[in-house]
Amino acid sequence: MTIFDENLILETINMIKLHNFDIRTVTLAVSLRNCLSEDVNIVCDKIKFKLDKYAKNLVKYATEIENDYSIPIVNKRISVTPISLLGESCRDKDYIKIAKTLDECAFNLGIDFIGGFSALVEKGFTQGDMALINSIPEALASTNRLCSSVNVATSKAGINMDAVIKMADTIKSAAELTAQKDGLGAAKLVVFCNSVGDNPFMAGAYCGYGEPECALNIGVSGPGVVRAAILDLDENADLGVLSNKIKQTAYKITSTGELIGRKMAKNLNIPFGVIDLSLAPTPAIGDSVAQIFQAMGLEHAGAHGTTAALAMLNDAVKKGGIMASSYVGGLSGAFIPVSEDAGMIEAASLGHLTFDKLEAMTCVCSVGLDMIAVPGDTPNSTIAGIIADEMAIGMINKKTTAVRIIPAPNKKEGDKVVFGGLLGEAPVMKVNNLSADRFINRGGRIPAPVHSLNN
Asked: Which residues are CB-neighbours of 194 under 8 A, at least 6 positions away?
């Protein structure tokens, strides 16, 4: 006879009903490497056939599992092979046609986002890479579900500063082409150092070169659950006790996510890939990483001590997660997007959270400068400098870092951008007005650090 622990049952119910626990995304990674052709029309036809073959039941099975387990699955997504490779095979490198094909497939399949309009250019550009990057602003402006990413640096190769300059121009153009939507195009574009090919989260998801034909990657989230667990402790509990509580909670979150992921993969008859156990916040009250800091004892995100609190949180989440699953991957840790986190939005609006403090926090978080709105007249060289700083943090620390920045057209410091849904809203933040122009425009490549020579 099975004995049920009533407290555990109630705890799980409360995680879902009271503390915003959810499966943030099920992301089907599909390799499109066999879709190459000299004819772009054939490439597009092959893409449609392959995505329909593997993803036609993704939304159906996700809905069934939501109903069976009463656990929300917020987004259903697809990531594909970096599209720079596919377009490069064509005589006519029509990346806009490929972008619209991917967007059409996502619409027809009921998918929320499709990622992989991407290029990896940390050591330089091929013709296909350059053509794809040139097409990004129009591609994002003319589609609804497409997401794009470009990797411009690694710890092994250094920082491609020519790519950094190019991406600053691209971000500005993407924002300007979607000015009527507060620069939404830039919100679907991310620049990476050390990007990973099994990341299920947008806008940076793509199917890496070493990935199988198809796999299901899961992204779980539970900032509200972690916050509630901390608030249950004695308010004078020391930081070691606090860390253990976070680990225990991350273990439960990860176990639930893997259960859902393996069930879905079995239904789809494809391999289970990885579980990304990131604490990905939303604009909903109580689903905030910033509010975890307050539960820990900080007056607000941005106070001195915030970086230390984030470092402990990130580490404890990873330690708890890897005890629950042998296949933890993606980014895994705590995200600190400004527009997507109610507590971060408040802190930035009140001036508690500055751009410089956010940069410091990225040294220990999962990704980097994420969903930050800046004045629309910010010089391209300043945006390039922001990207270069963040790439340097990733390169030196052998970690993934990223920049998703929105130079909001016709907006100035103190104004607000509004995207809605999971993308939320954000105050336009102040940036340093000192010029980086001469340094940035030297171009070339910042060499990899000495620890890259570790063979």
From this structure: 151, 153, 154, 155, 394, 395, 398, 399, 400, 401
Check which CATH number belongs to the domain holding 371 and give it: 3.20.70.20
Q: Specify if 453 maps to a domain.
A: no
120 φ, ψ (degrees, to nearest 5)? -115, 110
Number of domains present in the structure of the chain: 2
Summarised one tens digit per residue, pLDDT across range 251-298 is 888 888 888 899 999 999 999 999 988 888 877 777 889 999 999 999
What is the identity of the amino acid at 409?
A: P
Residues 6+ apart with CB under 8 A from 421: none
What is the pTM (predicted TM-score) of this model?
Answer: 0.92
Tens-place pLDDT, residues 331-359:
888 888 888 888 888 898 888 999 999 99
Task: Determine, yes or no, domain membership for 414.
Answer: yes
DSSP for 360-395? HHTTTSSS-EEEEEEETT--HHHHHHHHHHHHHHHH
Task: Specify whether 131 is located in the same domain as 259.
Answer: no
- The boundaries of the domain holding residue 143 are 29-193
Q: What's the count of helices (H) and strands (E) in the chain, helices before strands?
A: 16, 13
Picking from 162, 193, 224, the residue at the C-terminal end of a domain is: 193
- What is the residue-wise DSSP string for 423-454? GEEEEBPP---S--HHHHTT-SEEPPPGGG--
On whether both 233 and 93 belong to a single domain, the answer is no
Distance, CA of 139 to CA of 144 (rounded, Å): 9
Helix axes 289-296, 342-350, angle to 10 degrees: 80
The answer as to whether 123 is a domain residue is: yes
Q: Do 237 and 302 belong together in one domain?
A: yes
Q: How far is 155 from 145, CA to CA, in rounded Å?
A: 31
Q: How far apart are CA 143 and CA 116, in angstroms?
A: 14
Please say whether the beta carbons of 105 and 65 come within 8 A.
no
